[in-house]
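ingest -> validate -> predict -> emit
validate: passed (alphabet ok, no gaps, 156 aa)
predict: started
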Amino acid sequence: MLPLKPSRIAVFILLVAASLVALHGRASIFSSPETDDYFTDDGTVPLAWAATTEGDEFEVRRWQAGGDPQGVLVYQGGDTASFLSGLPEGVFEIRVRSRGQGEPFPEWEDAHLRVTVDYKDMRVVAALMGAGFLTFIAIVATIVVGHRRALREAAK
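emit:
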């Protein structure tokens, strides 16, 4: 075990303090989803992030390749959560930034959430709907035929 010298402790404290100062005032990491890559097959994304100071205002935007270079505003306000829905198929980058009251928003950081939207294959959906329709017809036919048989037997 290495002996702890005051200089090593000071360096450690300095590194921790520098990291905290660098992160102060920025909300760049999403706490939900908990991964940097998120896959959805229904076009919805639950978002949550941590506030650094009380009273901060947040801005969440999404970008898609070939889209608006300013991105699409998803949310702006004081809450620390949002829910995206209705996303078309594709790959998106979602970023969040914060500002204190009366301050301008800082530049966007590199940290982002990558969302891939890939809907279910419509051929599979059509096949399942067809099987459900045939099952429904078979049940209705069984009930009607059984009811008629019961009426005929009751009339005898």
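Residues 25-119 form a domain with the Immunoglobulin-like fold (CATH 2.60.40.10).
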